[in-house]
Please model this.
Amino acid sequence: MARKSTLLPEVAVVESIRQETPNIKTFRVVSPGGGKPFEHIPGQCAMLSTPPVGEAIFSITSSPTEKEHLDFSIVQTGTVTNYLHEIEEGFEIGIRGPLGNGFPVEEVKGKDLLFIGGGIGLAPLRSFINYCFDNREDYGKIDILYGARTPDDMIQKKDLFELWPQQPNTDVYLTVDKECEGWDGKVALAPHYCEELAFTPENKVTVTCGPPIMIKFVLEALDRMGFTPDQVITTLELRMKCGVGKCGRCNIGEKYVCIDGPVFTYAQLLEMPPEY
Ligand SMILES: Cc1cc2nc3c(=O)[nH]c(=O)nc-3n(C[C@H](O)[C@H](O)[C@H](O)COP(=O)(O)OP(=O)(O)OC[C@H]3O[C@@H](n4cnc5c(N)ncnc54)[C@H](O)[C@@H]3O)c2cc1C
Ligand code: FES
Model:
């Protein structure tokens, strides 16, 4: 069957909407006749469009192993996201994708995986994490370190507090930035907690996504802990327009983040101009 154009939006239906935090909602999207609009690999994205106001790119947070829908966790930040946060279940939107390269799920088989996420940065990681759990025998030990400003700002709480800690050969470490009433867990910034936990680099790949400042300090911490740049994978969130390498909005040197990325190893980033 011919591949559908990733430039042409198709109609999709918002099947359900869940409020995750005060400013983040998770939208479950299906085709009008039911089922997924398209297949994807973890780390890939889609453009969601709301014709009166425009379109914007979001990571697909559901795993490809979820066969009936695509999920997106979306922060309310501006024109498109304000509109999305106002719509109700059953609303029709436009969708085009899958966009971007995605995580190297095949290449890291057999490795231990350390996921480090901050805030909404858990969205792309979650697709990979749940993919690993649905193919558990392909991957080694899984460590998940997730930080948010406050407990209320944590997304996907059922995964974080219930489902993931029950998985075999898996540890979940949660932290918040500052002391909060009702939180008796860890209080530390994610990069500091990562160093404190003293993860060792042997046979391990780390995958990190979060605010740029968190990624910067995580990369420095992993370097001090002995991880080499090719053991560290991250995703970039540059401004994007077309998402298919046509408009030149997202290039860094010769690379187009929308098609060569958004997933890069730190080794690849070190070879690129420092514009990200
Ligand atoms: C590869 C990729 C994956 C993404 N995944 C997610 C996701 O899973 N969930 C999610 O909530 N968001 C994600 N984003 C960010 C999302 O695309 C933007 O928040 C969205 O485009 C904002 O659209 P808007 O019309 O609501 O905001 P606008 O009205 O366009 O902008 C509002 C404000 O946000 C700033 N802004 C907008 N986009 C970006 C950006 N990419 N980087 C920095 N500042 C920006 C603008 O400068 C402005 O100050 C992702 C971005 C990329 C590039
Ligand atoms: S967003 Fe248009 S070239 Fe990347």
Observations:
- Residues 112-235 form a domain with the Rossmann fold fold (CATH 3.40.50.80).
- Residues 45, 56-59, 73-75, 77-81, 120, 123, 237-240, 262 surround flavin-adenine dinucleotide (ligand 1) (CB under 6 Å).
- The mean pLDDT is 94.
- Helices lie at 79-86, 122-134, 157-163, 190-197, 212-224, 257-260, 266-270.
